[in-house]
Design a protein that fits this description.
705 residues, seven-stranded parallel β-sheet, 31 helices, globular
């Protein structure tokens, strides 16, 4: 909050005081031009009057002339260094300009001069929240409210500090009070936006941040918040522009750098994205989930060697390490008893993970495995309800802190705790840092090592992680003798004829995440198009309609001799059936590399579309090989880029063969190990049992194994 009042000392000169009082009244009423005229008139009388200087500085700041405004307030401070209000208002302009640490110091100086200035405490809470120093922000907001119990900005910033600590229920009351007291304050809508973001309501979050910007167009934190909301809605181009403006204005690394880097990664531009991500996570106090985003995005980078990637993952583990001993099982180390196995995931819902997890959980033998699900899902759907029916026990953990969830796991006497998210979005790896279960594993949701000593093993297979893969994993690799996945679609359309029979040309396609489609992949696909006359390329992803995405894809293809008229980018489908029906437009699916598709590959194959995949060096680049091997379609597996291109070109040259494949693939899949959830469950159970028996033997011998 800006203080536009006139300190008592200014009233020594009655005429000057009268001018300043009239101007400040116009200022508070929102008539900035009239206020500026009055302040300048006052300075014409007394050129160095500190009150007129700092008030004019506020006006210039409100009009976007932040540097000029700060200069005037700093002149006022030099004239009257002991005025707390001057320092507090300087902090406001510094914060608007993205200079958060300097703003924090200005507010603290104001408080040192006068500890009873509620505005300074309230604004300090906002700056500390912007710096992710949420506990300190809460203390400052509470101090402001002890001075002024109905201070709207203190209430709004208290809510922001509580949201930052994931205390969503606690945040609701002060935020509701702030909205009632001062609905026209931008900070109220800023923190409403943060609350909606925390609730995963990105549409309402966008509206709230836009309202804040409508009230204060220069509010950088609102621009950043809006960018985050837009990014979660795959509206990348506008998000990029907002964040670029933010990082240019801010003099400190922040989560804006991380999100901007992530946006470039999502757009397939690793060269620009990676340095920004590294800048963002290089600051102190980075929350674990932000650092996890950086690790996840490393999987998109084609030129990083596995040793470097492992090192980066281990750094995450070292940075957030907790020394927590594993608990003793309540029933003792009995090697053959039924195991209580906990599954932790944010994806017990309509998510790609469910296509693979649900058939496995359904097939587990309840006499051997007792399934306990820890669901970090905010909005349950019909898939969530289906998982609840499978589980022996169900625990809701969305919005509950990691330490509390870990205690919940201990209280539930879990023997084996399995992470299903890795470093993916909304992961709960933080729970595993507390070592709440004797054995802890990672499976399914993340195509790389976790880097954590607290994760004992990772379930993979001999195709995704052949001999030697141990050198770039922190966990013990449990290799299954079959594909590590079992796929089971539930609703789907009928198979259609390959479109080339009617079109007279081949349509290649990929429905993989655009982030996986880097410039090298596009150049390889362009060479395939050049070798197959009149062929087309169809891409589809949530962000494929974004102008930033379209421009890059069309530009890279054009540079490689393919006109944009041969490239189609499909919009997001409203539902799964409509999405799968889009495969009727595709003759041959091209897998991405070095990060293969998983669900997209299974969906293409199930719709009868042959997939060409390139076997890579690490798990993320070898999942396609595992899937195609499982269904017996070795013809789609390539060993190098040349082989990849030739495989696609050979398939394209034989439309009758494409028709035959189209009508055989679904049947082949349904009779393959990829559909054999029972077989996967038996191997899964055996691996867990062997791990448990080894652990029990170690406990019996008085040593850890």
């Amino acid at each position: 909050m800006i203080d536009a009042s006139v300190p008592t000392a200014a009233k020594a000169d009655p005429f000057l005081a009268s001018l300043l009082l009239e101007a400040s009244a116009a200022h508070r009423a929102g008539d900035l031009d009239l206020a500026e005229q009055g302040y300048r008139q006052a300075l014409g009388i007394v050129p160095d009057d500190p009150n007129a200087l700092q008030l004019l500085g506020l006006i210039l700041g409100s009009k976007g002339r932040l540097s000029a405004g700060r200069s005037l307030i700093e002149r006022a401070i030099r004239k009257t260094p002991g005025c707390a209000f001057f320092h507090s208002n300087l902090g406001n302009l510094l914060q608007r300009d993205g200079k958060i640490m300097a703003a924090i110091e200005a507010y603290r100086q104001a408080i040192r001069l006068d500890p009873e200035v509620a505005d300074a405490h309230a604004n300090l809470a906002g700056a500390l929240t912007a710096a992710s120093l949420f506990v300190g922000a809460e203390i400052s907001a509470e101090r402001a409210l002890s001075i002024a119990p109905y201070h709207p900005i203190a209430l709004a910033n208290l809510a922001g500090a509580l949201i930052g600590q994931l205390r969503f229920d606690d945040a609701a009351k002060p935020l509701d009070a702030a909205r009632r007291l001062a609905p026209q304050l931008p900070e109220v809508w800023l923190n409403t936006g943060h609350q909606r973001m925390a609730e995963a309501d990105f549409i309402d979050a966008e509206a709230s941040f836009r309202k804040a910007l409508e009230l204060a167009p220069l509010l950088l934190e609102a621009k950043k918040g809006l960018a985050f909301a837009l990014a979660r809605r795959s509206m990348l181009d506008e998000a990029r522009q907002l964040l670029e403006a933010y990082v240019q204005a801010s003099d400190q690394p922040s989560n804006a750098h991380s999100m901007l880097g992530h946006i470039f990664m999502l757009a397939g531009n690793q060269e620009t994205g990676l340095p920004l991500l590294r800048t963002g996570i290089g600051r102190t106090g980075v929350p674990p989930h932000e650092h996890s985003t950086y690790l996840f995005d490393l999987n998109y980078c084609p030129d990083l060697d596995p040793a470097t990637v492992l090192h980066e993952h281990r750094q995450w583990s070292d940075r957030y390490r907790l020394e927590s001993p594993a608990p003793e099982p309540r029933c003792g180390p009995l090697p053959d008893r039924r195991l209580r196995v906990g599954f932790v995931s944010p994806d017990f819902r309509a998510h790609s993970v469910s296509f693979f997890l649900k058939p496995l959980l359904q097939a587990l033998d309840p006499q051997r495995i007792e399934v306990v699900c820890y669901s970090s899902v905010r909005d349950a759907d019909r898939i969530t309800l289906a998982f609840r029916q499978i589980a022996s026990e169900w625990q809701e953990i969305w919005g509950i802190g990691d330490a509390d969830v870990a205690q919940m796991v201990r209280d539930d006497a879990i023997d084996v705790l399995i992470d299903l998210g890795g470093h993916s979005a909304d992961n709960r790896l933080g729970v595993f840092r507390y070592r709440p279960a004797p054995l802890q594993l990672s499976y399914l949701g993340y195509p790389n090592t976790t880097g954590m000593d607290a994760i004992d093993a990772r379930l993979v297979d001999r195709w995704t992680d052949p001999a030697g893969a141990e050198s770039h994993a922190s966990e013990r690799l449990l290799r299954l003798d079959r594909c590590f996945l079992a796929y089971r679609p539930e609703i789907y359309p009928a198979i259609a004829e390959p479109p080339c029979l009617e079109n007279g040309f081949i349509s290649f396609g990929s429905f993989n995440n655009i982030a996986k489609i880097n410039d090298h992949v596009l150049s390889v696909w362009a060479s395939i198009l050049q070798s197959v006359p009149a062929s087309r390329l169809i891409l589809k992803h949530d962000a494929s309609a974004d102008p930033m995405i379209r421009k890059r894809i069309e530009s890279v293809c054009s540079e490689n001799g393919v006109d944009s008229s041969r490239i189609s980018l499909l919009d997001r489908a409203p539902d799964l059936i409509t999405h799968l029906e889009c495969y009727r437009q595709i003759d041959i699916a091209l897998d991405s590399f070095p990060y293969n598709g998983t669900t997209t590959t299974c969906e293409a194959l199930w719709m009868g579309v042959p997939v060409v995949t390139l076997t890579g060096k690490v798990h993320a680049g070898r999942v396609g090989t595992s899937l195609l091997t499982a269904i017996g379609f070795d013809a789609g597996i390539a060993t190098d880029v040349g082989d990849y291109c030739q495989t696609a070109i050979t398939l394209a040259a034989n439309p009758p063969m494409l028709r035959t494949i189209r009508h055989l693939l679904r049947d082949s899949m349904s009779h393959s190990s990829l559909f054999d959830a029972d077989g996967l469950a038996r191997e899964f159970e055996s691996e867990l049992r062997e791990l448990w028996q080894v652990w029990c033997a170690g406990r019996t011998e008085g040593q850890l194994s």
